[in-house]
Amino acid sequence: MPRATVEIRSFRPGDEDAVLAFHNAAFPEHPPRSRAHFDWKFTRNPAGPAEMALAFDGDRCVAVYAGMPIRCVLRGKPVLAALHTDVAVAPDLRRGLAGSRLVIEVGKEYTRRFIAGRKPIEWGYPEPALQRVVVRHLQVGVLRDVCWLVRRATDIPPARSAIEAAAVTAIPADVDELWARCAATFGAATVRDAAYLHWRYLAHPDVAYTVVEARAGGRLRGLAVLREGGIDPRLFAIMDWLVADDDRDAEAALLAFAAASARARERAYVGAFVPLALPLARRWQEELGFLVHYTPFQECYRAWGPDLGRRWLAEHWYQTGGDIDFF
Question: Torsion angle of alpha carbons 92, 231, 325, 115, nearest 10°?
Fold first, then answer.
């Protein structure tokens, strides 16, 4: 159990500066987080406000177990899920058992307060030391390795169809219809409607994302969100992807646009996080020549239902780079 002086409780208005200071101390390998980023992530999320369990030693925040509520579809039904983020304990508490015990306690408070009976699926990408603790003590499982599919930008051919791919400055008004068409084939997925896409990408305070639409005869056939770097500085990353499985022309137009953008920015590769058990990943490897690039990360999950086993989720849970909280 944590020391008697440590208070474990949910986030309250007024905790922002203490939690922000904790984050910047706990993750020194990342650029310092701004208050604008904190507010974007935890107060402007269209799915709901901050969900955090905190540990305070006096006025100092010493542990955080947080999740972003995310609207998802699960077997065709709308559900609220959670993307774990910013889970950590203060660096000076990591050497002994006290830090692990504190993570367990705030994790239990997070589950009790925000998850139990409310969210059927959760996911996140913990650091290895934290992963060992949550897997052992908090019913967390390992879903899959985080692998990106990559191809040299010079090897992706130009599109040869009537579909035009172009960058746009706003999320297209008809994207919800495209989302509905694509969602019909997903067993589970984040709801990629206009509200989510605008918040996740165009409202992001730190990263310049490019939204690209593919149209033919005025109809929206596909949407991609691109950025430089991300998992690797040599990469031009496809962060989100909405294209019907059988629409090869829209796919080719968006990939060609990504490749041309990569070459213009002197990035050697185009890449995307496509879970390897999905048919799309297999097809991109077999038909389009994408190769698997392993990363140091693993995706962890919790599923609260007997019909949500690891194998089913791995094969049916559609995810993109946008489902990773730190990109």
Answer: -80
DSSP 80: E
Q: How many domains does the chain have?
A: 2
Of the residues 89, 117, 139, the one at which a domain ends: 139
pLDDT at 114 over 90: yes
301 falls within a domain: no
The residues near 155 (Cβ < 8 Å, ≥ 6 apart) are 289
Q: Containing H/E element for 318? A: strand 317-318
pLDDT digits (tens, 9 = 90+) for 149-165: 999 999 999 988 889 99
Regarding whether 176 and 319 lie in a shared domain, the answer is yes
At position 302, the amino acid (one-letter code) is R
Name the strand (E) or helix (H) holding 38. helix 35-42
249-284 as b/e, with b when 16 or more CB fall inside 10 Å?
bbbbbbbbbbbbbbbeeebebbbbbbbbebebbeeb
Residue 287's domain comprises: 147-296+307-323
Pairing mode, strands 77-89 and 60-74: antiparallel
Q: Say if strands 51-57 and 60-74 run parallel, antiparallel, or are unpaired.
A: antiparallel
